[in-house]
Amino acid sequence: MIIMGCILLFGCKKDDPKPPGAAVLSFPLQSSECTTGVDLNSTTSRVEFRWLQAKNTKTYELRVTNMLLNVTQTVSTQGLSAQLPLTKGTPYSWVVVTRNSETNQSATSAQWQFYNAGAQTSYAPFPAQLVAPQSGGTAVRDINNDVELAWTGADVDNDISGYEVYLSTFSPPVELIASPSANNTTVKGSTLPNTVYYWKIITRDSEGNSSDSGTFSFKAL
What we know:
This protein is mainly beta. About 5% of the residues lie in helices and about 50% in strands.
């Protein structure tokens, strides 16, 4: 009887729910100018987004953010593409969030950025992506009481001329601590222990265009 009970117990056991995998983005391409939008009017075009099928996924949620206004449009679909109206000549970032009905867990794709094509022939750099320290996180000072700041930069025109790094104990930061060249995306900033700092990056290109990363914060330990 004990053996039979064990057989019934394990025979009726359900498999654990499988979380969805992260989608792999396909189009618009990372750090590109999207020229395939369908004109809706003089200021807006409709852009199609595409991605690859993710494992254990029932629905895909496309999130597209206007990087100038920090406004996000969202659309859900069971397919591998979706379309949204976007402002011309404007930088956007986008991700895809995957979900299924078996679990509350979700997965988020990599974040890509692009310019929706407009009438201009020269584009401002994409806002720098602040990598470390992560916003709201902590950072351990080195032996010289410095914290390393790291970011990535991109430009459709590939003409970034350099960066301006601002770091302060108040927001927005106004103290310029470094002006590295386009090939240098890390600097060290002097910090005090147990202190919250705010930092941002201004990216400039050879045409005189610029972009602002927005402000991140971290606590130096």
